């Protein structure tokens, strides 16, 4: 795996886990896996609210985490669960065109 992919995965983990720690009252589960031609970063937390990336605003201080994840991930999904939600970001392993 390239250094670039490792750096992107680390960034995505940092942003998603930081968000979960800030907003979820209970436990957090992190799962990393290689799935086909991608690395999947999955974070489950106990907070039921579905996060929404805000519009880009260069003057806003903070709250850019989901924007960053959306920018570097090939796919981002947020699924509600019986308790909390599951956020999954897929980082493409194939070279970008």
TrEMBL record:
GO terms for molecular function: ATP binding. Residues 9-94 form the Histidine kinase/HSP90-like ATPase domain. Coiled coil: none annotated. It comes from the Bacteria. Keywords: ATP-binding, Kinase, Nucleotide-binding, Serine/threonine-protein kinase, Transferase. InterPro entries: Anti-sigma-factor_SerPK, HATPase_C_sf, HATPase_dom. It holds the Pfam family HATPase_c. This is ATP-binding protein.
């Amino acid at each position: 795996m390239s250094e670039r992919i490792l750096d992107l995965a680390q960034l995505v983990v940092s942003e998603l886990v930081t968000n979960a720690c800030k907003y979820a009252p209970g436990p957090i589960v992190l799962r990393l896996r290689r799935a086909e031609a991608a690395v999947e970063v999955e974070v489950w937390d106990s907070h039921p609210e579905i996060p929404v990336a805000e519009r880009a605003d260069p003057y806003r201080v903070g709250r850019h985490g989901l924007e960053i994840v959306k920018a570097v991930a090939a796919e981002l999904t947020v699924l509600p669960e019986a308790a909390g939600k599951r956020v999954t970001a897929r980082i493409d392993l194939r070279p970008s065109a």
